[in-house]
């Protein structure tokens, strides 16, 4: 399990992965070496999976987000289909779901022409895919992937 100090470290690193051990030590009230050891332990135990830089996709020319609902054929292997979908560079997320659809796929593309090319020439031709439905995002109200510990624990 993790304690309040671990949560503070994780919060700091989620906010800015470049936060130094010395900065965290000052704000938490511990020695930098103790913070270093805790970070190492959080990494070893799988609480920290890696460190990334969040890019501005819109500024880089990939301003269109869409969700593609995918239905597969009766005998399709969900593992194989998920792997194929996940391999497309435009695909950000692949979720196996229950209900009318088999997968929900989040993609980021340049524009509607790029989306059409992805759907018509790469996703729909996959043998295991029976049909797709696509929803284009017109405005994103909330987009985050960090965990809010205190809010999650209160619920």
What are its keywords?
155 residues, alpha+beta, Arc Repressor Mutant, subunit A, Alpha-Beta Plaits, 4-stranded antiparallel sheet, 6 helices, 4 strands, 19% strand
Short description:
The protein has 155 residues and is of the alpha+beta class.
Protein architecture, described:
By secondary structure, the chain is α+β, with helices and mostly antiparallel strands. It has two domains: 4-44, Arc Repressor Mutant, subunit A (Orthogonal Bundle); 64-136, Lrp/AsnC effector binding domain/regulation of amino acid metabolism (RAM) domain (Alpha-Beta Plaits), CATH 3.30.70. The chain contains six helices and four strands, in the order H-H-H-E-H-E-E-H-E-H. Strands 2-3-1-4 form a four-stranded antiparallel beta sheet. A hairpin with a 6-residue loop joins strand 2 (91-96) and strand 3 (103-109). The radius of gyration is 20 Å and the shape is elongated.
Outline the secondary-structure elements:
Layout: H1 4-15, H2 21-28, H3 32-44, E1 64-72, H4 78-86, E2 91-96, E3 103-109, H5 112-123, E4 129-136, H6 149-154
Helix pairs in contact: 2-3
Counting DSSP H or I runs of 4 or more residues, the number of helices is: 6
Low-confidence stretches are: none
Which value, in Å, is the CA radius of gyration? 20 Å
Output the strand order for the largest sheet. 2-3-1-4
């Amino acid at each position: 399990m993790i304690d309040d100090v671990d949560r503070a470290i994780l919060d700091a690193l989620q906010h800015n992965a470049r936060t130094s051990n010395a900065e965290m030590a000052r704000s938490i009230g511990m020695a930098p070496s103790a913070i270093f050891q805790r970070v190492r332990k959080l990494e070893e135990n799988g609480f920290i999976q890696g460190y990334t830089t969040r890019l501005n996709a819109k500024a880089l020319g990939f301003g269109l987000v869409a969700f593609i609902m995918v239905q597969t054929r009766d005998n399709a292997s969900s593992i194989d289909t998920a792997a194929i979908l996940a391999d497309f560079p435009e695909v950000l997320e692949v979720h196996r779901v229950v209900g009318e659809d088999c997968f929900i796929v989040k993609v980021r593309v340049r524009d509607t022409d790029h989306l059409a090319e992805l759907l018509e020439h790469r996703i729909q031709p996959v043998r295991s895919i029976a049909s797709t439905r696509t929803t284009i995002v017109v405005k994103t109200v909330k987009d985050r992937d960090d965990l809010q510990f205190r809010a999650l624990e209160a619920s």
